[in-house]
Amino acid sequence: MTYKKALVCLSLFIFGAAGSQAQVHHHVSLAASIANGKKVYMQNCVTCHQADGKGVPTLNPPLINTTYVLGDKIKLIQIVLNGFNEDVLINGKSFSNSMTPHASLTDQEIADVLTYVRNSFTNKASQVSAKLVKNVRSMNKK
Ligand code: HEC
Hints:
The chain is mainly α and 142 residues long. It has one domain: Cytochrome c-like domain (Cytochrome Bc1 Complex, Chain D, domain 2), CATH 1.10.760.10. Helix content is 54%, strand content 0%. The protein has helices at residues 3-23, 30-44, 46-49, 67-70, 73-82, 107-118, 130-140. The longest helix is centred in the N-terminal third of the chain and has 21 residues, at 3-23. The protein is globular, with a radius of gyration of 20 Å. The structure holds heme C (HEC). Heme C binds next to helix 3, helix 4, helix 5 and helix 6. Heme C is lined by residues 44-45, 47-49, 60-63, 66, 68-69, 76, 79-80, 84-86, 88, 90, 95, 97-100, 102, 113, 117.
């Protein structure tokens, strides 16, 4: 192998490694995500949805066994990013307040707070990843 060829090989190896490094998403364990999500919840959601997730009658809906909390993760992420003010029934009731957007939270914070909500207040549902939040956020901008 010539010196030049070896150099090309070496740089391909280095840049290849650097390139794939950027794609790696740090996996956060379920327990760590729930623990951090609780902190995010206490700072950003508790005033409306309350510490027990029961909300406030006629104003703010509960986060317990609703189709939104347990259902489609993409819709759920959009609610946090964009806020929510739709004339819908949530567990059979309507709520007059409107939810403010929380787009300033990081992808990981949104993943954590939703993972916390989906695993609290008797809810049991799968983890939300920061990668999915990132994808939904970029879809949002189009
Ligand atoms: C200013 C009060 C307020 C804050 C703060 C708030 N919400 Fe909401 N949220 C609401 C209201 C009101 C609705 C229902 C809006 C409607 O009926 O159109 C709602 C709806 C929702 C829904 C869908 C309906 C349901 O009950 O399942 C989810 C999920 C949700 N919020 C999660 C969150 C999370 C997570 C946070 C914190 C990041 C948060 N909210 C912060 C007021 C708030």
